[in-house]
Amino acid sequence: MSINKKTLEKIAHLARLQFDEKSEERMLKDLNNMLSFVEKLQELETDHIEPLQSMTFESNQLREDKVKGQITHEDGLKNAPKKDDDYFRVPKVIE
Amino acid sequence: MALDKSIRDKYRVVIGLEVHAQLLTESKFFCSDATVFGASPNTHISPISLGHPGTLPMLNKKAVDYAIKMGLACECSITEENIFARKNYFYPDLPKGYQVTQDKAPICLGGQVWIQAKGESEEKAIALNRIHMEEDAGKSIHTEDATDTLVDYNRAGVPLIEIVTEPDLRSADEAYSFLTEIRKLVRYLEICDGNMEEGSLRCDANVSVMLKDAKEYGSKVEVKNMNSIRNVHRAIEHEAERLIQLVESGEKVISETRDFDAATGTTSSLRTKEELNDYRYFPEPDLSPLIVNQSWVEEVKAQMPALPRELKRKFMEIYKLPEYDAQVLTDNKDFAMYFDAVCQETKNYKAASNWMMGTVKSYLNDKNINCREFPVSPKQLAGLIHLVEDNKVSNTVANQQIFVKMLEIKDADAESIAIEANLIQESSSENIQPIIDEVLSEMADKVKDYKSGRKGLIGLFVGEVMKRSKGKADPKKTNELLKQTLK
To answer: Which SUPFAM superfamilies match (chain A) (predicted)?
Structure first.
């Protein structure tokens, strides 16, 4: 499998990334290098191996339904690039 | 938009629903922020719900219990090994840039919900594809502001279940009935308040049309933003006609998402499916697998209340009530449980049903209260029913006088009220007969008319006897005795 320009553009769009043509070339090269590196793994015979879904051997890390650990309104909004007294403000979403 | 019936009848409408239900937990799905509705904006937030780097989610057990409950109520199979997944997309109300949901291993698979659409005599099972758990997003507020959208993250991370049907529904009426059942179920289970206006229950509809002899489904359109069950009905009705007209005029149906406008009852395009998001699902590495073993399922099963359909059947089979009664009585859980409790105190089930559907229901509606707040206990109500049954008071007196007093006096016993207020009616012939004799002798003319065929005069005699007994004579008994005397 290799990545062409069209796929790259799609991935970039999904990640909301933008770059110029020169960077695009470099990105294509890098991504394809990574893919061929990982492709090595395809050589392994995995027909009888269950897919690994999780890196932990633990399960059911659960908590009780209790309210705690909230932060204040002020602290929550503190790092927002744009805000008013009540809300986070983001560039207008048109849909 | 009026579509000719003969044209409409050529087509089959195919509908699948996706219903989101906000679970009634105290805290959010993966963090401990409160979930209360209507708080000031951005007050129930934490580094986890705001998606700050380095935070880790931790699963709320109760949300899982609730999802299992719904699965059991819908006869789903409960998945043992649950994996959460990340659904990736960018939108400002989704602070992490992904939603934690379930993709390949939803908690409930298959299952069905029984509906009985308007005008249908038979029940129909609507197959479910799945029920999965996921977190809610925050709320974007689009104002007149020229540059900004406002975001409130109080709702971000609130637990949801999404109930996904197979494309089994065939009309707006069926969709209406399905949603009514779902709302009834979540309310019986007490896992969601079922309020569509406030958005704790939300429904998207996938609608397509096909010629009745066609083999393949038509292209489907997804309709969103219907904030009541009635609006879901309107939106589907509108969309089905719009699609049929498109097909009839030879146009191609584009797969798209459409927005319902309640003011006009029409839909408009939001986005086409070509712009379909690629969500790039992958297993959420921050959450350990969730194993729901049999003993967990059994534990939840033990907490299940009686469900509306079981109660309806019980009311029809054991209490021998007409289907209509059973339906009305089971619309609301507290109402149904109250009725059931009354039936433990009296065997006069039909009378109990009439009281519930009439006097009690109108009182509750009038006061706008729930059956839990109803001041008369099932035992007291049964006492009143007995009083009428034993002919000690008439229905009218029971309704208009004793019931009213029972509402005012706590724990008052119907019979004591009746005795105290001198309301017990006279039904012994020794006491009624003398009044009858008196009345008939004074109205000799009318008696003559009666005997010559004016049988309607009986009402006059009964009325007069009632009047002279100060309303205490049992009208039925009086009627009986009068007829005998006049023979």
So the answer is: Glu-tRNAGln amidotransferase C subunit
Which residue is listed with tokens 């009585």?
B329
pTM above 0.80, yes or no: yes
The CATH number that domain B429-485 falls under is 1.10.10.410
A89: in domain: no
pLDDT digits (tens, 9 = 90+) for B398-418: 888 889 889 888 888 888 888
- Smallest Cα distance from A7 to chain B, Å: 12
Task: Kindly report, residue by residue over B83-117, the tens digit of the pLDDT.
Answer: 999 999 989 999 999 999 999 889 999 999 999 99
pLDDT at residue B274 in the model: 59
**Separation of alpha carbons A94 and B361, rounded Å:** 47
Q: Tell me the residue range of the domain where A15 lies.
A: 5-42
CA dihedral B372, B373, B378, B383 (to 10 degrees): -170
With CB atoms and an 8 Å threshold, state whether B148 touches A91. Answer: yes
The answer to whether B148 contacts A59, with C-beta atoms less than 8 Å apart, is no
- Residues in B touching A88 (Cβ below 8 Å): 42, 92, 150-153
Q: Are residues B290 and A60 in contact, defined by beta-carbon separation less than 8 angstroms? A: yes
CB pairs under 8 A between A and B: 126
User: What residues of chain B lie within 8 A of the CB of A56, using their CB?
Assistant: 288-289
CATH code, A14: 1.10.20
d(CA B205, CA B201): 13
Q: How many angstroms away from the CA of A8 is the closest CA of chain B?
A: 14
- Asked if residue A17 belongs to a domain, the reply is yes
pLDDT band, very low/low/confident/very high, at B482 (cuts 50, 70, 90): confident
How many structural domains is chain A composed of?
Answer: 1
| Confidence tier at A56 by pLDDT (50, 70, 90) | confident
